[in-house]
Prior knowledge:
50% of the residues lie in helices and 14% in strands. By secondary structure, the protein is an alpha/beta fold. The chain has two domains: 5-164 and 370-398, Glycogen Phosphorylase B (Rossmann fold, 3-Layer(aba) Sandwich), CATH 3.40.50.2000; 172-367, Rossmann fold. The strands form two sheets. A seven-stranded parallel β-sheet has the order 3-2-1-4-5-6-7, sandwiched between helices. Helix 4 (71-88) crosses helix 5, helix 9 (176-182) packs across helix 13 and helix 10 crosses helix 11. The longest helix has 25 residues, at 374-398. 46% of the residues are buried.
Amino acid sequence: MGRPLDIMMLAGEPSGDALGGRLMAALEERSGGAVSFRGVGGERMLAEGLDDLFPMAELSVMGLVEVLPRAQEVMRRVRDTVHAVRAARPDALVTIDAPGFNFRVGRRLARSGIPLIHYVAPSVWAWRSGRARKIARFLDHLLALLPFEPPYFEKVGLPCTFVGHPAVEEGKNADGSAFRARHGIAPGAPLLALLAGSRRGEIERLLTPFAEAAARLSARMPELRVVVPTLPTLADSIERRLADPGLRARGLNAIVVRCGADKADALAASDAALAASGTVTLELAMAEVPMVVAYRMHPVTIAVVRRLVSVDYACLVNLIVNRAVVPEFLQEACTPDRLEAAVARILVDRSSREVQIEAAREVRRRLFVTDMAPSHRAAQVVLDVLGRRETRLASASAGK
């Protein structure tokens, strides 16, 4: 283009921040450093040089009921962001997940002349399939994480590229042995990872049954160790809750890991996991860690979701292999006794473990696109979209 690229990026939660940080690093590398970034992101994106408009924490909300008390604030930020994008006229706007916020911004910028690229396809294959046609009206390109997603959008005229899932590259250099050595965990001691989510609402609903199940297992298996990877912003609160005397009395003495590189090492070191349904299940699959998945939503939110959902599974691993490999315990089924029994089985039953490990390898094969890492493939698609636009503008100018 003859000048540095100016790209605006918007992420609304920690998973989007991680995606955005890797995408920024890949764009920096593939453009030879000729790119600058501004927008909204978290620690990962700020570390890559993002000039931020406002703190990402203001947007980290999920659920119909949960977002209502902050609706006015979120809409104010939508207006502020649209104004900032129009004023900046960046070469592209890349929005990352968080459709509740990002699609509101995108709709207001339709026909602005600014290329709109969204990273993480909404789950139209699971619920509200009509969303595909609606977002095709304002997006220029969609980057999909799952291999079966592009046809849902291409059939309504929205260009969509499967770039691969970030879980493929997230833990590729993880060292489970080093993690055990750092934390004094014997090589043969069973290690259980508890992953109760990355949002405060998820922690509120899931940490108690997860911790109770782990405490019961600890009472039965004195050699069991427990690790809880989480975000720095949640770690202190989680440590306080896990210090409950009732849990400690039954032998639960969890190691709380404040994410970063230590999270990947913790997963690589684990023998089993009890996890919230979400992206982390694919990270566990990449590490070949057998798991039990659970989730709870606000009762009003789940009542609406149950009317709209059209898939048989919640866990991404089960969705990708299209069979019930990972045990799922949702809403009222998410109880300490059921979780305890399911985790105990994958800790001691070799056949149950082998079934999950083979499914994890199948997931890896399906998520692997080329020799190019997902973040670099996404970066190349962004650059290709901008290159095609530049060619069209040059042709139009020459024709005048």
